[in-house]
Amino acid sequence: MENFLIPIGGGNEIGASSYLYVLGGVKILIDSGIRFNAKEPYPDFELLKVLAPELDAIFVTHAHIDHCGSIHILSSLYPDTPIYTTHETAQLLSLMVEDAIKVKYIKEKSEDEWKEYKLLDETFMRLERREFFDTLNIKDIEVKFLPAGHILGAAAFQINYDDSSSIYHTGDISLQPQKTVEAAHLPSSSVNLLVTESTYYYSNRSFEKEKAVEEFYQTIVKVFERKGRILIPVFALGRAQEIILLLTEGMKAGKIPPMTVYVDGLAREVSNIYENLLNKEFFNYYVQPAPTYEGIDFLEACEENLREANCIISTSGMLMENTPSYIYASLLSRNERNAIIFSGYLVEESFGYRLLNDREILKNFKCEIKRHHFSAHSDKKELQDLINILSPRKTVFIHGYPGKEIKYHGFNREVIKF
Predict the structure, then answer these.
(1) Mean pLDDT score, 19-46
(2) Residue 289: which H helix or E strand, with range?
């Protein structure tokens, strides 16, 4: 019987990750994310229901919303299908998807918002939690959970089928250790099919971590010396915690001056979860959760925080409109001594991307705008190393924007036979 993969979303794009595998008589789906595009936020669920009226299992790689942001919608479409993920992802997923729902309805309230919260609660109760290196038997296939690096709880899946054949589905992967997670653990033998993210595969940019950290510190020192305030927009999950530890280590090592750092937005809550799950301190004398204020609106609270703190770490990482970091940026923009320091990926739809690339917007900002590249994704060289290590018969790139090597890329709705 023929085996195939169809990206329901997240094939030739970053966003709405969702991948249907049909392995003989077994149908499984990996991930159910959303796009940062309000017009078509979800994977193609209509196509999915045609291809798979029933699913044998659903797996979630990690808790970033481009991979899990529509899991509650998917769950309602397949109410009897088990949903598997790691313990850490289960705990983080609920918080991340709840926030995504809140942001979705921030401009216009609707009864649908409360329906989505209810679906999320029902989905959370259905999650079946597994440890890394656990193996599940789903009819005639085996699915093994492997650490993917990237962020806390992120899993890759080794899928064994047809007695001696295997697939390695990376999810989002990092082959380099970070401050909060180890590097990915790879399958111990070669695989027939490698399905890998390609966030930076089509870019020639390589990540020299030590150099990036030193340049980051240098920017902070310059702003501090001119008595400016700093905003570091961050992804709440993963990037925020890495930046917190970088700043703490920099102050302890004397590479940046002692300063007051406030962590605001969703990053504050996620960092508390990281503290509990990792038994590791993120908040300390210098780095603190931003205070909460009663009786004043959020704009006034942000103004007060900027009076007290030298540096604000806040979501969203892309300066999406109406998020805390967007409010902080608008306040900092008025003074040339201040700086906004981007530290991660920016989609074209985001205000952060437009700020860096649109002169008309940029001219309204007096403050310094800097971008330092940190990444929880493997770069092109690391992905090439991955291919060499696993020696797959076939490689399919997903979760990226195809470049010249387009023949290896899996496009949305494309049937990929193997």
Answers:
(1) 94
(2) strand 287-289
Q: Are 124 and 234 members of one domain?
A: no
The strand pairing partners of 193, in sequence order, are: 167, 394
174 with 26, same domain: the answer is yes
Same domain, 15 and 121: yes
Task: Assess whether 18 and 82 both reside in one domain.
Answer: yes
In the predicted model, is pLDDT for residue 358 greater than 90?
no
Q: Can you give the CATH number for the domain in which 71 is found?
A: 3.60.15.10
Would you state the torsion angle of the CA atoms of residues 311, 314, 317, 319, taken in this order, to the nearest 10 degrees?
A: -90
Q: What integer best gives the mean pLDDT of the chain?
A: 94
Same domain, 332 and 193: no
Segment (H or E) for 268: helix 266-278
Region class of 15: left (phi > 0), else alpha (psi between -120 and 50), else beta: left
Short-list 394, 331, 378, CA closest to 174? 378
Could you identify the residue written with the tokens 């994310």? 33
Rounded distance between C-alpha atoms, residue 181 and residue 158, angstroms: 20
Task: Say whether both 225 and 302 belong to one domain.
Answer: yes
What is the domain count for the chain?
Answer: 2
Read off the pTM: 0.95
The per-residue pLDDT for 209 is: 85
More confident residue, 9 or 352: 9
Task: Give me the domain span that covers residue 234.
Answer: 209-371
pLDDT at 110: 84
Same structural domain, 317 and 365: yes
The CATH number assigned to the domain holding 366 equals 3.40.50.10890
Residue 233: pLDDT above 90?
A: yes
The answer to whether the peptide bond before residue 333 is cis (omega within 30 degrees of 0) is no
Residues forming a β-bridge with 135? 144
Kindly state whether residues 189 and 222 are assigned to the same domain: no
Please tell me the number of Cα atoms within 13 Å of 104 on its side-chain side: 25
CB 324 within 8 A of CB 298: yes
Where do we find the tokens 């409109």? 321
